[in-house]
Amino acid sequence: MRVLYVLRRVVLPLVLPVVLVAAWWAATASSTDFFWPPLSDILGTFPDTWFQGRFTADVLPSLARLGAGYLLALVLGVGLGVAIGSARPLRALLEPVLEFFRAIPAPVLVPILMLFAGIGNGMKILVIVSGCLWPILLNTVEGVRGLDDVLSDTARCYRMRRGSRLVHLVLRGASPQIAAGARQALSIGIILMVISEMFAASNGVGFTIIQFQRSFSIPQMWSGIILLGLIGIALSAAFQAVESRALRWYTGLRRSQREG
Questions:
Q1: pTM of whole model > 0.70?
Q2: What distance lies between CA 71 and its chain's CA centroid?
């Protein structure tokens, strides 16, 4: 059983990435195309490009802006989602407005946010918030709406305090859908982190990739794209670790229902 667990959790997820990397390596091994260099050249430039000063000058500022925007969107999305999902009249009033703003792509807001927030870190964080907010908010609303009425009535009958009801009933009951929205928002946040750094920026991963492209440093440009993929994998793994710990009760319940 232990061998099967390791095979399923560790080995199988690595099969497709290894195959894709091998295919990329083989397809570009003898490439002479300036814009499609061999993978070996790209990987050879990776350490010198990103670990010789750019990690602290570009990568860490990008991650700091991503973290600030994502956490702010998480707080706003969960807070507003609980309030809207708990009040039916408020939900009916705000639903058309929420659908309107959700349909606006966040990159379109970059020029507008630059007018009001300037070109500093504040603008970049607001761009990330403007995209990450909606999946968290809407999933939280749906999660609160889907709470079991019997549990809500039981909490009222036992006169649970409002704070206890919020933590133990509302947030815990809606947490699976909140986590689904937060996972979707994380991938959106990485995209918007790069996009926001392509406008009037002086550092960041997105800014550096654009500089490489404009100076025709093609292997370095490709190394930046690979770096973004690695950042996405690392953040996804961290999110899964937190999610599995926070939703252990939910996964255990689903497992018992399937076995039953």
A1: yes
A2: 10
